[in-house]
Amino acid sequence: MPAEATQRGDRARWTPADPLIEVRGLKTWFPVRSGVVNRVVGQVRAVDGVDLAIRQGETMGLVGESGCGKSTLGRSILRLERPSAGDVLFKGRSILGLGTRSMRRLRREMAIIFQDPFASLDPRQTVEQILGEALDIHHLARGRKRRRERIAELLDLVGMARDFAGRYPHEFSGGQRQRIGIARALAVEPTFIVCDEPISALDVSIQAQIINLLEQLQDQFHLTYLFIAHDLSVVKHISDRIAVMYVGKVVEISPARDLYLEPKHPYTGSLLSAIPIPDPRLERRRERIILQGDVASSIDPPSGCRFRTRCFKAQPRCAETEPPLTEVNLGDHQAACYYPLG
Q1: Distance (Å, whole) CA 33 – CA 54
Q2: How far apart are CA 328 and CA 197, in angstroms?
Q3: How many angstroms separate the CA atoms of 97 and 85, rounded?
Q4: In a 10 Å sphere around its CB, with 0-12 CB exposed, 13-18 middle and 19+ buried, how is residue 141 labelled?
């Protein structure tokens, strides 16, 4: 990995035992405009005070309903969206104040795999041009021969034939296009990759292949993932730890196994209860958590706990103050709830 991505002083302070990524009080708000003069009439609080630590070599799953701020959080960590407040540290170094030159060097260590393989690839470019673009921007694989060799290596890594380099995106299936997207992310030899719902647009049979590929690449290159999804059953199979997000807030963080066996936040419990059980007898007998009401507005969220308007355990205290993320179980399990499950 490129040594120039961090300064000498930062490398001396940061060690692999520390979190690779630290998110501190991160907020990313977007203005709501109205009228002929385009006046700002409100703010969409897409990410509204998130604290998160991602350890080197792990997969942190990030789940929640559509519109809860998951993708915005992932893009804000990479500074593809400009946060409104808070901080993001990579190897102990704040990245939000970096200039263009320093940020370009850092981008060699950070990459993203987009949700839609049909929209994320330029239809006018061949696979060779798509993969070569990242190599050219960062001055990797100098010379035509080395450039072609590196593109062939990237295609090998994602299980695609080398002669596909001359083809265009429309000539491939959805799963193959996503493999090209993964190869593009690998081109800069990153340490950290945001996987922004990388399988949601794919058939179920292809989803498993892509997850297996991501796991193989993680083992081979010691990668760290933030894996974003809205389906808890998918996240279970790839994540070491899982963060659950609701209307701009992280409401629970837990090791994956603990989250499925013993969820603590009522919102997490409701998500898990919606996952079908393969055994029909158990499926008929189990108790479901059916939420009432609509998802809270990210423009005008309720006071206190944002989930309280739909929560079956809500009490007056929940409307008064926002519950902080606190340890609810031994073993790195936290929940933002005054009245946790169990």
Answers
A1: 35
A2: 29
A3: 12
A4: buried
CB 340 within 8 A of CB 328: yes
Structure tokens at 199: 């399988």
DSSP track, 27-75: EEEEEEEETTTTEEEEEEEEEEEEEEEEETT-EEEEE-STTSSHHHHHH
Spatial distance between the Cα atoms of 197 and 116, rounded to a whole number of angstroms? 8
CA atoms within 13 A on the CB side of 283: 7
pLDDT, tens digit, 9 for 90 and up, residues 72-89: 999 999 999 999 999 999
Strands 224-229, 249-255: pairing kind: unpaired
In the block, which residue shows the tokens 């996503």?
178
The tokens describing 192, both together, are 């950290």
Query: For 191-206, what is each residue's pLDDT tens digit?
Result: 999 999 999 888 888 9
CB atoms within 10 A of CB 44: 18
CB 125 within 8 A of CB 168: yes
Structure tokens of 43? 């703010």
The rounded distance, in Å, linking the Cα atoms of 84 and 74 is 14
| Confidence (pTM) | 0.90
